[in-house]
């Protein structure tokens, strides 16, 4: 299987998200986590708050990889290839930034 640089970036962002999540969970010893939203706050467990979004988008990324292997001709057309990979990169950057925002928000409240 030919793995290109775009796939390596997706895998790297996914690994960074899991590492940030597990690193924060090791040092965060509270029973609740506060997720700031636009008008309200969401109270949840630390695992769901930090790694819930990561696990959902890991499944989406793995599905994209399997679809890319299965329908190789469709995804090697330039416009579909660029659309799927760029949107997945932006998605993982958003996931990591949301994780960091929630982490910094909770560390500011608790400490």
From TrEMBL:
UniProt keyword annotations, A-Z: Membrane, Transmembrane, Transmembrane helix
Transmembrane segments: 7-29, 49-69, 90-109
Annotated protein name in UniProt: Uncharacterized protein
Highest taxon above the source species: Bacteria
């Amino acid at each position: 299987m030919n793995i290109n640089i775009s796939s390596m970036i997706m895998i790297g962002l996914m690994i960074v998200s899991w590492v940030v999540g597990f690193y924060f969970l090791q040092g965060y010893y509270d029973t609740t986590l506060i997720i700031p939203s636009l008008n309200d706050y969401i109270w949840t467990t630390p695992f769901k708050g930090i790694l819930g979004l990561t696990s959902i988008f890991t499944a989406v990324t793995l599905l994209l990889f399997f679809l890319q292997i299965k329908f190789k001709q469709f995804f090697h057309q330039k416009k579909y290839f660029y659309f799927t990979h760029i949107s997945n990169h932006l998605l993982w950057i958003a996931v990591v930034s949301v994780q960091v925002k929630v982490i910094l928000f909770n560390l500011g409240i608790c400490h």
